[in-house]
Amino acid sequence: MPHEKQTAGVILAAGMSQRFGQPKQLLTLKHKYLLGWVLDAALASRLDLVVLVVGHEHQNILRALGSATNHPRLRVVVNHRYQEGQSKSLQAGLSEIQTQYSSVMFLLGDQPMLKSATIDHMLDKFWHSEKDICVPIWKEKRGNPTIFSRAMYGNLMAIEGDIGARGVIRANPERVLSIEVDDPLCFVDIDSRQDFENLQPLIA
User: Fold this and answer.
1) Closest CA to 181 of 138, 142, 145
2) What one-character DSSP code corresponds to residue 57?
3) Topology of domain 7-203, per CATH?
4) How far apart are CA 160 and CA 4, in angstroms?
5) What is the pLDDT, as a whole number, of residue 17?
6) Residue 49 bridge partners (DSSP)
7) Does the structure show a pLDDT above 50 at 11?
8) Total Cβ atoms within 10 A of residue 104
9) Backbone angles phi, psi at 53, to 5 degrees
């Protein structure tokens, strides 16, 4: 059944991975780049378009991803202001889609265990709700990805600094649809070497 709402996905992958010491996007997990796992999940989902926002080391990252960047539902955006923080990547992606799509899902480039089924579950619940924001919850902990309707685009474009959309979510509790997810692994992001080591057996 066709849905009325069209949602674009924006993968935030422009960061410098300063805490990690090397570009996390190009870490290899079971013969696939960390960013490749997220990209594959997004493209296998019901997102109408996927925008990949790169910045730091973008030439190396795009070279490594190779033909994967030629997917017909994928657009690549280079955020040259990545040093100003995550807000600039979020806005670079949103600028690419805001006139065409009625909602946007932001995905993190370092959450390799996110599944397309989780993305689709969130999309389905959001499309059938009247809310403007959608977040996944596991054991009362809020995670990513997150969805925002066009009504929130102005708020998102006003964010500054190295933060994502947390402040927008906190400031609008009555507009938030919380979705219980049954897969805690989708919340796992890679911030440290230990996170990366802990993930290896889960992938295997």
Assistant:
1) 138
2) B
3) Spore Coat Polysaccharide Biosynthesis Protein SpsA; Chain A (3.90.550)
4) 32
5) 64
6) 8
7) yes
8) 29
9) -100, 115
Residue type, 96: E
- Kindly state the DSSP code that residue 69 receives in the 8-state scheme: G
- The pLDDT of residue 2: 44
Nearest to 58 by CA among 72, 40, 77: 77
Tokens linked to 28: 């290899």
User: In terms of C-beta density within 10 A (0-12 exposed, 13-18 middle, 19 or more buried), how is residue 100 classed?
Assistant: exposed
* φ, ψ at 68 (rounded to 5°): -60, -25
pLDDT of residue 116: 95
> Residue 1 — very low, low, confident or very high, per pLDDT cuts 50/70/90?
very low
Amino acid at 101: Y
**Per-residue DSSP letter, 189:** -
- Which sequence spans correspond to the domains of the chain? 7-203
pTM: 0.92
Instruction: Choose the weakest-confidence range: 18-27, 48-57, 103-112, 177-186.
Output: 18-27
